[in-house]
User: Fold these one by one.
Assistant:
Number 1:
Amino acid sequence: MKIIIVAGARPNFMKIAPLVHQLRKSDADVTWKLVHTGQHYDYEMSRVFFDDLELPEPDFFLDAGSGTHAEQTARVILAFEKVCIQEKPDWVVVVGDVNSTMACSITAKKMNIQVAHVEAGLRSRDMSMPEEINRMLTDAIADYLFVTEKSGVDNLKREGRKDGDIFFVGNVMIDTLLYHLDQIKKNPEPKENPAAGTINDSPFAVVTLHRPSNVDDRNTLAGILKALVRISADMPVIFPVHPRTRKNIEVFDLEKIVNDSNVQLLPPMPYIEFLSLWKDAFLVLTDSGGLQEETTALGIPCFTIRENTERPVTIEEGTNRLVGTTGEGILSAYEQLKTRGPQRGKVPKYWDGKAAGRILNVLISK
Ligand code: UD1
């Protein structure tokens, strides 16, 4: 059996890592190749993750780069078709919900190659999110649907997918998290961390922000930054800034809001450096999908700066809370957290570090 594994953007790399490591260990009759579409290409968004996550050089780098959605998607499709023609894989494995996920699924399926989608079934029901369109298109055509939480199974069944195509296997990103947490505990030498001078042993908050709906609109971004400045009067706020957000802070001339505050704007961080930081945070504020799940896995309070989430288990069982996208919403949730204290959560089913093994067992047994 021949498998192609696809990754394109930062949140994909931690999801493919445990699959790659399982394949390396496997003595099954499987060959595999790794494709990096090049959707993310900056050193801080890509290369450093390959190093941290002990990923091999990709066999193919498609150099898709940025651009409009059509441009980026089209470049991935054109380049990935050539890979499929050359390699003739039995399976293409895609992860997550980025443009590369959808583009490679469509390319493979039209060539009658079987597609497995890891992290299938998540739905925000918000069609203004490019990721929601990518999820729905990918799940509509993928042969095997590997699901992280029960809501994913329910969504797929509601959309008419057969029981036999759906596999509730858990969360590969949590495989990566638990592995690296263990590594950090085994090698506790403090790594040089750009935030180290600020945080000491006192409480601190960590922020990530990159969704177009939050960062492409001046008023929305300004409101969020003002709320962060208010929180930073109580504790340092460490904010590694995504390139898209950095660009907009400059274009909208918003740096002055955070100047002279305890909000620290930093470059994007490598995986291990970032994990070493946020694992000890008092509070994480984010619009990322991944961090909603990672904070739930470690029981850290998370404010999700969105109106909806495709990951409801993080709210129903975990430590996540939807706070909306206004400064007022963020601050009222923050005041409640201060007066009532953090809510307890539990770790969702199968978020146990063994999801990649379950996925490969299914693929190999077919
Ligand atoms: C993409 C994903 C999103 C994911 C996010 C994680 C889609 C539709 N979106 O969003 O789901 O949560 O990645 O980061 O696939 N840029 C750089 N260097 C890079 C990559 C991007 O400077 O290495 C800048 C470019 O100016 C680019 C902008 O960031 O225009 C956006 O990049 P893009 O890949 O289009 O989307 P993201 O916002 O990163």
Number 2:
Amino acid sequence: MSETVNNSVTEKQSEREQFVTNIALESFEDSPNERLKEIMQSLTKHLHDFAREVRLTEDEWNAGIKFLTDVGHITTGTRQEFVLLSDVLGVSMQTIAINNEAYENATEATVFGPFFVEDAPEIDNGGDMAFGAKGQPCWVEGTVKDTDGNPLPGARIEVWECDEDGFYDVQYDDGRTATRAHLFADENGEYRFWGLTPVPYPIPYDGPVGKMLDAVGRSPMRASHLHFMVSAPEKHTLVTHIFVNGCEYLKRDSVFGVKPSLIKDFEQQTANTPTPDGRELDRDWARARFDIVLPPAK
Ligand code: BEZ
Ligand code: FE
């Protein structure tokens, strides 16, 4: 019997496989774009290593190609299944980690998600971004500062979230705008607004990515969260969320977006507890604080 490598293939077979990898890698050698060459060679090497490591069968490779074809077919201008795939594989969060290297005390970034909309309505500081959507009222307040602790007056704060039924406004087909807005920090870098207490909801799971999650026994649920995008002149724009302390999905968020520093207490208040802005509420409400620190622009 011939000698085997890694208990699976003979040395001769391994050489044959390595030969295929080598000629595929060499095919990029003359690329006029050095960075593209680096990326394509690394991608090719890792794909070959993957196929060899799992001893990929031709049926399995064909199933993989069919899966990617289905991902392409369901993708439209408003449904981005490839981004969803990147999200559930943790590649989105890994890219965010690489590109938002921890900077002093700056607030951590997390995944953007598909439900941001440009030109969301402006609300006054202290205004209501729920616009009548269903859910428990939630007062959110905090500051926007730089890494030296200086307030950033006029910082732009975009916020968006789902309603109590787990849907963003853009998931309804009636053209509504709700649970999204932008506002500006005041002269002390402080902001405040009314929104809804976030609830857990599933990422879109009626397509190939959802089928894949089901096949591997994974849940599509995201831990309850409220999205923020915060920008100020000469500062790195922060895309992040805050998560609700105690949410059952914090440890198994389907897109790996949770970072401990972003988990906040959403303190429950009983009906008729006086509100920070004097609004009368004869139902339970909640309040949360999120102090934001922006790093300098790169
Ligand atoms: C979201 O938080 O809105 C989201 C993020 C990633 C995939 C799907 C949804
Ligand atoms: Fe979300």
